[in-house]
Structures are given as C-alpha cells and as structure tokens.
C-alpha cells in the first residue's frame, strides 16, 4: 500500500489520463452539464460509484458459484450482468478520480488499472462462453476474480484511509451562539471574505443585501471557498469547481456531494455575527436547546 | 539571399537570469494583459474577441504545460500546495473550453469571460503569487530556482515556436467549437 502511495512515477501517466478525460468531458459538455452532478452522485447525497461496484462483484461471485455447480448458461448471464455494472462503475469511478490529489490519486490509478484488467478478463470470458468454449471462459473468470478482490481492497482504502467521497466538513457545532466575526464595513459587496468564528473558518459573502456565511473548507477535499468566485447566488470552490448555493450551502454540481455547512448571520452594532445553523433540529419544543437551534434573523 | 520575415511581436531579450517564480509571474502578466484586452473588446467586434480568446487559450495552455512539466514536479517536496495548483489548472482548462465554445456575439461569452477572469486571478494571484511562491522562495534552493527559471523560459519559447504544439492547440479549439451547443 505504502509502495503505491509513494510511487511518484505514477503521476505523469495519471495526469496524462486526466487531461484526456478533461478534454473528452469538455467535448461532450459534461463539465458544465447536468451529467456532472449525476455521475458524482450529488442527487444521491453520497458518491454513486461505490453503489455500482456492488453489481460486478456480486454478479461475478454468482458466476463463480454457478461455474462450480455446472450451470453454464446462467453463469454466462451472470458474467454479462457484471460487465454492464463494471462499465457503469468505470465511468463514475474515473469521473470521481480526476478530482483527487497525491497519494489517493496514485492508489486510484492502480485501482482503475486492475479493474480494467479484470474487465478485460471477464469480457473475454463472456465471449469465449458464447462460442461454446466454457473451459476457457471459466479459466478467465477464475483469473479475474482475485484481481477484482485486490482492487476492491484498494477502493476501500480510498474511502476509509484517504476519505475520498467522505464529507470532510467540521463535525463540531461551534459557534453555538452568535459570535462577532467581522466589522460590517470591511465586508465588500460581491467578494468572498474569510473570517474566524469560534475556531471555525467561515467565508462571508454579501449578496442581494444579505450576508451569507458558509464553512470555508469545501466538503470535498477542504479547498478554500474564500478564494473561489461568485456567480448567480452560488460560490465555486477554486480547486475542483464544486458550486454551492449561498443561502443553503447545497452542492449544485459536484465533485462535492454533500452541502457546505451553513451559518446564521445577523448584523449588530456594525458587526457581522454568525452562529452555526443546525441541519436538523432535534431538541424537543420548549427546551433550552431548541431556543439555541431556532432560526432568528 | 532570402530576407528574414518581419517579426510582428517584439520579443525582448532577457538581460539576466531570473528565478522560476519571477519567470512565472511575468508570464502571469502576459495572461493578464490578454485578459484586459479581451474585457475591453466590445460585443460589436466578435472577430477580434475570438482571436484574443484563441490567443488566451494557447498561451494559458502553454503556461500550464511548463508549470506541470518543469516547475511542479521540482517543487513537490518544497510546498504541499502543488496538488491543489494542479487541480486549479484543471478548472482553468474547463473554463477555457467553456469560453471558446461561447459565441463572442452573445452575453454568454461575457459571462464565461467573467468567470475566466475570476478563476485566473484565484489561481495566479490568490494561490500562487500570494501563498505558494513566497513559500517556495523561502525554502527552495536559490540556484535551483534560477536554473528552473532558465528551463521554464526555454521551454516556453520552444512551445511558442513549435508548429506541432500550435497545430494541436488549434485542433483542440476547433473540436471544442464544433461540438458546442
């Protein structure tokens, strides 16, 4: 694992591949289109790719069992279903991979290469089975299965160790009370401003006569939203281009699939004050906590 | 005897060797100049807008190439911000594609140009000039930076005069325009 992460020679082919991918996506209009968020899984609330990987793994495991019990036709169908799922997983996986950094990028490249190898083996297996050469078909599947297991392990490492696709925002609830962050006159119109609120970095934006506040670190990989740009009531992360709605923090296009945490804001005595807006109000009505959680402009 | 063709753009010979960061900042200025000229060109001159957008496309792509091939790999162990800078290049490429795909006679071109300006400033000024370059100048070996500066300038010159590079970039622009909706 460490050998892959530290292998700098993987960077050049990785960037070549990404540039090819970028050009293809721009040609197809994916980058600025609806397909972008769809493939990342913005509509789902978490990445789409891990869902799809279950299809080939499950189908090819089934095929292994069917091969052992001698059900030839059913085994071929299972291999075919797995191939379809693997192609869908490849598209979403590449789409997510292109927006990763350093070590995770290298692991992702090896993960993808192994998957391509397994896809080739199973594709050949399916073809050979169709021509009645079941022994060859079974052999290719037997070779492909361990490859997909190793690759699955690397995919897991990307999520659990490198936190790719994981919401990277601050889990604390600070600041719970309205906290002064910036003199109002220092907040220029239409330009993001970074400030510190109770140990949390927030980005303040004045737009349409309102002050909006989001957490400064992008939920995708922690990019500084305060260095991003504003368009049509949204702010775009300068690192990977995730756009967030200013008033709600909702992600509009990915690669960030979760919303940027939102803060309540008010202006008192010439100071901008912010307080964490809880995503869900859990306290029972009438309690002290609900008083803290309620929205008061 | 053949006469040499007349040179249209005057290329100033650099008087002395410069650090890589300095070379890159100078090239940022070239890009900013193009951006200013584009912003100052009204919608009524679509031909000039298109030509300037083409020039920005080529020049910015060459900037990305020299940084990615020479500067970033050498600085990987000096600053942790390299991966992010690489991602920002991707944002610039995407925005360049959006810009050349927009019709220069429309408001869409103006909008894409505005975003292009913000994205370029975010990368060149907010990230590199204000954060990354000062850090590099503090921690990296000065001789190394000067040597990298020579290599960057040399590579840029060769890219600019390379017929193959020009052709690839032209093909990319044509393909992007052809598929625009």
Summary, kept brief:
Chain A is of the alpha+beta class. Chain A has helices at 2-5, 11-28, 34-40, 49-68, 72-97, 102-130, 134-160, 288-293; strands spanning 179-183, 193-197, 200-207, 210-215, 229-231, 234-236, 243-245, 262-268, 271-276.
Helical residue percent band of chain A:
40-55%
Identify low-pLDDT runs of chain A: none
Number of domains of chain B: 1
Radius of gyration of CA atoms of chain A, rounded to a whole number: 24 Å
Number of H/I helices of chain B = 6
- Quickly give the structural class of chain B: mainly alpha
Strand percentage of chain B? under 5%
- Say how many strands of chain A there are: 9
Cα shape of chain B: globular
CATH C-level class of the largest domain in chain A: Mainly Alpha
Number of helical elements of chain A: 8
Assign a percent range to the helix content of chain B.
Answer: over 70%
| Distance between the first and last residues' Cα of chain A | 50 Å
Pfam families (chain A): DUF2231, Rieske
Transmembrane segments (chain A): 77-95, 107-127, 139-160
Protein name (chain A): DUF2231 domain-containing protein
InterPro entries (chain A): DUF2231_TM, Rieske_2Fe-2S, Rieske_2Fe-2S_sf
